[in-house]
Write a structure and sequence with these properties.
single chain, 191 residues, two-stranded antiparallel ribbon, 4 helices
Length: 191
């Protein structure tokens, strides 16, 4: 019964995230170096459905458990050159903005096991959760990479970045969304 419930929730999430990506920009764009298009609008009226995925250690990460925080979801792969260029910036911003209410989470899209992903995480000193999508799911086929979603503290979709994100643009968006969200007792949060 838990397995059915889990898969039902995954399917609902996949459908919702898929609608955010749309059909545009999915073929031949993987090598794009910088952001060509961002989908920015006022936040959606309703929060996104629950997203629960396992991290590299098998623990479940939950979008709903991060309500009250701004969440940046970065879809990436170890073979992606722009991802390798963008990752150090995300690690630094994650440290800088954590106390201001930011949670960064990566979704690794490598399809040849976790060995390369774990090495990448160690080499780049990634200290935020790295999740693994269900093999064969729509989430596992996000293209192009990197693609990043920004979700406000109420769990609503705010913006999609396709390609390498210029730090200046990301900082401006994070400053706007994290204003007034300083975490009072971050030390009690399990990382």
């Amino acid at each position: 019964e838990k397995v059915k419930s889990f898969y039902s929730a995954c399917i609902l999430l996949i459908v919702t995230v898929s609608s955010l990506f749309g059909a545009a920009d999915i073929y031949g764009q993987t090598r794009r170096k910088t952001v060509k298009k961002t989908a920015a609008a006022k936040p959606a009226e309703k929060p996104l459905p629950e997203l629960k995925l396992p991290d590299l250690n098998g623990a479940q990460w939950s979008l709903h458990e991060n309500r009250g925080r701004v969440v940046l979801i970065n879809f990436w792969a170890t073979w992606c050159a722009p991802c390798r260029e963008e990752t150090p910036m995300l690690v630094n911003l994650g440290k800088e903005y954590k106390r201001r209410g930011l949670e960064i989470v990566g979704i690794a899209l490598d399809d040849n096991g976790t060995g390369n992903v774990k090495k990448f995480v160690a080499d780049y000193k990634i200290d935020y959760p790295v999740l693994l999508p269900v093999p064969g799911s729509r989430l596992a086929r996000i293209d192009p990479v990197p693609t990043t979603l920004l979700i406000d503290s109420q769990g609503r979709f705010v913006k999609k970045y396709v390609g390498l994100i210029p730090e200046k643009i990301l900082r401006a968006d994070l400053d706007r969304l994290t204003m007034g969200l300083t975490m009072k007792n971050d030390a009690t949060r399990a990382d």
